[in-house]
Amino acid sequence: TGADKVFLLADGSEVEKGCKLPIVAAEDIKPGRIEWDGRYMLNPYDSTDSKKMRDFSRYPKALAYVRRYESVLKGRHCAKAHPKEWLRTIDRINYAVLNGPKVLMPDIQLGGVAALDAEGRYYPHHNVYYVMSSGWNIRALCSILRSSFVTEQIKKVSVSLRGGSIRYQSQNL
């Protein structure tokens, strides 16, 4: 987001329902399940078009919230590059990712940690990698990604990090 301390909301009560997305972070993903901690992401984009900024004048709680952090948000590089869109995040929201079934995996892990978001309830935080498929059985794919075979293959192509962690990224998968 470029400002997680502003955009990530502990429980979402600070803003109206239409301005937030349930976000899943790496620590919420356990082998085979999601233990969502209740965090939300403030969504500055129009709910139907992620290329358009949201009209916050229609959301007084959210407007008051972002005004409190206006100087922080305007100080970010992406806001300086687009001053009229100072609320934008580094990456736009991809609504297909939010609403579609997906396998979620912490980007950095020891291996075998993947969980299925079958209903498309959560938006992945930037420390979460996701896989979507219209051709594969997504449940089977999740099981395969959790296997020791895949973990061993990822270890062979991933940079080994401190503590033996590996990266689950597209080039490795």
Polypeptide structure, described:
With about 170 residues, the chain is of the alpha+beta class. The protein is about 25% helix and about 20% strand. The protein is built from seven helices and eleven strands. It has helices spanning about 5, 60-70, 70-75, 75-80, 95-100, 140-145, 150-155; strands spanning about 10, 20-25, 30, 35, 40, 100-105, 110, 115, 125, 130, 165. It has a four-stranded mixed beta sheet with strand order 1-5-2-9. A hairpin with a 2-residue loop joins strand 3 and strand 4 (about 35).
Keywords:
173 residues, alpha+beta, 4-stranded mixed sheet, 3-stranded antiparallel sheet, 27% helix
Give the amount of beta strand, in percent: 15-25%
Binned, the helix content reads 25-40%
Q: Which ranges are low-confidence, i.e. pLDDT below 50, for 5 or more consecutive residues? A: none
**Which structural category do the helix and sheet elements fall into?**
alpha+beta
Order of SSEs: HEEEEEHHHHEEEEEHHE
Put simply, the count of helices is 7
Total strands: the figure is: 11
Any idea what the radius of gyration is? 18 Å
Please state how the strands of the largest beta sheet are arranged side by side: 1-5-2-9
The average pLDDT is 91
Major pleated sheet: 4 strands, mixed
Q: Based on CA inertia axes, which overall geometry fits?
A: elongated
Distance between the termini: 24 Å
